[in-house]
Predict the 3D structure of the following.
Amino acid sequence: MKKTILTGIKPTGQIHIGNYIGAIKPALELAKNEEYRAAYFIADYHGLTKIHNAEKFRQLSYGIAAAWLAFGLDPSKVIFYRQSDVPEIFELNWILSCFASKGLMNRAHAYKGIVDSNIQLDRDLDYGVNMGIFSYPILMAADILMFKTEIVPVGKDQIQHVEIARDIAENFNKNYGEIFVLPQYEVQEDTAILPGLDGRKMSKSYNNTIPLFEESKKLQKLINKIKTDSLPPETPKNPDSSILFTLYKEFAPPFEVEKMREQYLSGIGWGKAKKELFNVMDKYLEEPRAKYNELMASPKRLDEILLNGAERARAVSAPFLKEIKRKIGFGV
Ligand code: TRP
């Protein structure tokens, strides 16, 4: 039996190269492994905890879908769907919430983070917390458990959520037998934490990102903004402490990377280093960008692909939900 590997991306921001290098690229690599059945989805109901503007929400959701496809996700191989198109997940969400202790949710870091900052700012503890944020990990557990997922490739910040899914599954299984598969997280250790324009981790919350599908001119402008020191061109540079080189490594073929390393060590001007980075990135992104733009111009096509995927997902989720409901005592 193939192992199920599942991951989702929530549409809460414009997708940037950190998302690509940290999540999309490794997930697409894993999907090539014949031992896995891969299910990748757009966690739109998770996005709804934050985004409350319909037009923006729609664009962000389609944007994630188009990004996966632009980088080569094959919807005939990967089960590729929108969470909101698979209603069984939401039924399961309620069932699981009856097996998730509130204390466990209190400790979930996203919620706890908001409470902590409310304390610091001397605000009401619950300021800015909707119930979606509070019970976010339960919906994520439903995503994972619905498909008997064995492996969840995630970033470090999501480890706790996978552990919560395990806890909930164990609670349920204790009562009704081995219904749910206990999932494991897999953190892509070798994926670099990509630095953003200012050198901190590239993240929407630091406002230092390079959007993935920026047109060439804007891409160049952004690259020109990347922070460098004031060493003169001929001074040898340490490639491993340079934001420019760290980004370059991700987009250039290995032999070019080695050549560039030499250039840093023997002295390269930052202007030139930026130009070289722009060249490799622009070349790498050219084709996916065209594909992305094409897909974004035809949302009908995206819907078709996603609904097709949802149908395949439901072929798994519908019978499994029935089985779960029988176990808990609904009908015979
Ligand atoms: N919470 C994840 C994130 O913010 C997105 C997500 C939702 C997810 N459901 C999931 C990831 C299930 C893995 C598995 O990145």
